[in-house]
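<context>
A single protein, sequence plus fold
<entry> Chain with its tokenised backbone below
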Amino acid sequence: IDEQTYAVGATNWQGAYNATEYLIQLGHQRIGFITGSMDLGCARDRLAGYRAALRTHHIPLDEALVCEGDFRQLDGYNQGLALLALPQPPTAIFGSNDVTAMGVMDAVRERGLRVPDDVSILGFDDIPQAVNIRPALTTVRQPLEKMGRVATQMLLDGLNAPQASPKRIELPTELIVRDSCQALKS
């Protein structure tokens, strides 16, 4: 997004960093990551946050654990199956959004595995369904409602003061720990 555009977003990089770090603190070293559509800044930022957390904790990046996705459940399912088919599959998989993570959960079940006993799953967004699925999805909450309110106010402010410079605002994300992740068993 260029500097001449009004924009409201979330701290995608930091949210992905914190989520990856949480999995590392649970003992996971082989953490799969399914990106969103890489033409979107939020997807690139989430991938960068994931990579930075691995670097910070001295975990070598294994490119085989990174799959390009499109934020859809079917793609999460297909990429989840691909990750689980690796000779050394991940012990945790981080989907770039909750819908992707839900697709990964389907793939885990299809392989006869259990979430989180065999594979921890983490998402991003905290959509309403994230708390209702079983197990409830650990995720990064974006303040979606607040983002909408702030964007609406920015639009109204811009209409009332067209000479004002456009602003870009990033609202903080928050890791929401639920039931889909657990400490790696030795």
Summary: The radius of gyration is 17 Å. DSSP finds six helices and eight strands in the chain.
